[in-house]
Amino acid sequence: MFVRILNSLEESFIALLLASMTLLVFVEVVMRFGFGVGVMWAQELTLHLSAWLVLFGVSYGIKVGSHIGVDALVKILPTMARRIVGGVAITACLFYTGLFMQGSWIYLAKMYQIGIELDDMPIPKWIAHSILFIGMVLMAIRLLILLWGVFTGRNEGFTLADEAKESMHLAEETKASANLSGGDSA
Known about the structure:
This protein is mostly helical. It has helices at 2-35, 42-64, 72-75, 79-114, 125-128, 131-152, 163-185.
């Protein structure tokens, strides 16, 4: 239940951020080049929206297995060894996200204490930069789910994108479509 809610919220936020960023940039370009005026805060907002999009996307990438990795050595190991290596790698990532969460929490606390606002918008900097902590929490949740999958035997480690396999598949599709095109003209 929690994972389904997390998935839905994460996907909705990613879609909303991408649409907002695209619309904002489009409006800014039209206003600047079409009418010779611009919105002063548009660039700063676009920058912050993209930061939010990236950190939500990292968590989502763990879920769908779209991150790339070097796993040639791991793939030749027996199943149990792959699970152990995967568990160690996930634990190392959890340690890293823990460090990053701690550092971002300290940073956000200082920004809150100082009370600085963004340069072009009257938004407290700690709110705009809170994605540092939120993104790491989301990543930690995804990593914990993945680690649980390793312990229960559903996963062997990270699900990584296999670019070589995808490239070979695309090459085969291209070759097949070229053969179909060539066969029609003869």
